[in-house]
Amino acid sequence: MMKxxxxxxxxxxxxxxxxALLTLAMQVSNLSxxxxxxxxxxxxxxxxxxxxxxxxxxxxxxxxxxxxxxIRYNADRYMAEITMDIAPQHDYLPFDTSASIYTAGxxxxxxxxxxxxxxxxxxxxxxxxxxxQSALVLEEIIGDLMVKMTTN
Amino acid sequence: xxxxxxxxxxxxxxxFERLGRGHIFLLRVLASLGSVVVRPGxxxxxxxxxxxxxxxxxxxxxxxxxxxLGLQGYVTLSTFGAENSLGVVVALSLVRExxxxxxxxxxxGRAGSALTAEIGLMKATEQLSAMEMMAVDPIRRVVAPRFxxxxxxxxxxxxxxxxxGVYGGMFVGVGLLGVDPGSYWSQMQAxxxxxxxxxxxxxxxxAFGFVAAWIAVFEGYDAVPTSEGVSRAxxxxxxxxxxxxxxxxxxxxxxxxxxxx
Lengths: 152, 261
Hints:
The complex is a heterodimer. Chain A is α/β, with parallel strands linked by helices. In chain A, about 25% of the residues lie in helices and about 30% in strands.
């Protein structure tokens, strides 16, 4: 009898440990929110991506619809090439949608904001977003400001 | 003068002797692990004493560490208006560092010291010699099940610690201080990576469990078989485990997170 209750307690302990591991994997990590595998991919070229990282959110009106899949430098166009995974239910983006890189809050991470255009044709897998706006680099703004102030 | 040099040399030889004996002992334990699998009942009984009995202290400390993290993180982050990132701070510090390290330190105090005292007393009362007389290998019968049970129990305890800590941080941050629950969880999920953070945390806790178990059973097996010797061995277990875990933690952290990707 003693042996049985001991085994039950050990079983409860191991189950609790595994449940905690599962909680960490599902609830705490990005495993559940990264299910964009069945979506479609679009690319965009930016002059400057600032501090954008792979995995950063892609949003429309602040709602996350996808993630940045990869970032690389395109030597043909001398620009940064961003590939985005968009979730499959967001297949209504017009062809002339524009993409901008913004910063969440003052110190937050950078993300891509999409602004739907007016075209009747929709973006498909492998399409390229033509209209892009680069990340704001603080040094460039200060530099522009300095030039303006000294020329006046 | 000559005496000082002689005692210094004796001390150095002792250190190396114990270091060598500890590693040879580890090899013998590892070699006998296979025979333990045949008798899982022994491991289950030890899992009870090192795991189940440590459950409550891990639960309570995890809850309070999470609550303190929630409070401290909120106070600091709100100066920058970034209190929505509280979930990230709580989860990353628990999963990467505090979960494995604090669990290992508590484990050394709660279970490691008990293992050393138990095995040391068995040696002092000549139970280990009696086993050898009956052609029972005490390393297989006594040491190996305890070693294996500790290695199994540590990652489970660390996971429980981290999970309960995240909820403790949520209780303070969301429940008492008014952080938005949506951003607490979503920012956490965006920042914590399964492979880079959680799997590395589990690897850390397995490594700490290995070291803690090794030191505990070795100190017990190697104890001077007197009541004073056993008490010394128990103290050494706690001190050496704490030092080894903290040192190893730095090395593992540098290997896992040192490369800024």
